[in-house]
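so my prof wants the structure for this chain in the tokens format not the other one, which i didnt know existed until like an hour ago. anyway here's the sequence
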Amino acid sequence: MPSRNVPTIWWRWLHRPQRVWLRRALFQIHMWVAITIGLYVVMISVSGSAVVFRRELNVWLVPRTVPSAVGVRLIGDDLRAAAQRAYPDHEITDVREQRRPERPVLVSLERAGRVSERLFDPYSGLDMGHSFPRTLRLVEWLVDLHDNLLAGRTGRLVNGVGAILVTVLLVTGAVIWWPGRTRWRQSLIVRGPMKTRRFVWHLHSVIGFWSFALLLVWALTAIYFAFPEPFEATIDRFDPDPNDFERPGEALLLGLIQLHFGRFGGLGVRSVWVLLGLLPAALFVTGFIMWWTRVIRPARARATAGALAPVRE
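here's what i got, hopefully its the right format
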């Protein structure tokens, strides 16, 4: 049993973690890493939420079938003539008919050097819309931003480094979260009202605690996407038969990847994933407010007080 006069580090960690030097050091690491990559985290958070419905939007916005496959189906020159009537100031550069009768026809148009592709109903000859709508182009741009930072393989590697730093944030945040044996239950839910500074700290801690596991999965899978070789080598090392089609741990890895994208369940799960994807942004906002009120505002107040202090002769 520890002496009351000289408590052990473990005792202080359990009961008064705020006085442990290691916790204060980890707090500084956590704070400055968060400030350094904060905007990056917000960008990844928002872009990830924005592309959750990528597959569904493709199905909803691009017609897969014509309204009615009844009547005479236009082919060849008749199809080209119908498209030309719809777009008389364009050049019809290609008409791609589909083997299945219920599928729309893809028509390539060119005007002033700009090429576009439209879908046409081969029965009515009516334009059904763009084959790749502007909304989908925006979504694909966001996917490239989220996955590769618009920089190809280099961006993917930078994302991997960012995911490693996010993992550092999560681990240090988990250590910092521990408030002591007598107060840990109070840190599981948001209580209010309270002073703004204390409320923001409490909100930040609660969001971090309940989202820790999911955020850690997102960070680790993002590291895998950037640096798959170490993960694959680890799985192969524990594979007793490299000639079979099953590897130990691969099912877990695939499950984590499904969890990363929310590719399980239905639209309800993906709707929840849109909201959960914004949690890193919420953590940055609450963390930034704490940093501003604890560090920047006092520093500015001291600087102002020093500037206004009278000069002694």
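also thought this was worth mentioning. The longest strand covers residues 105-111.
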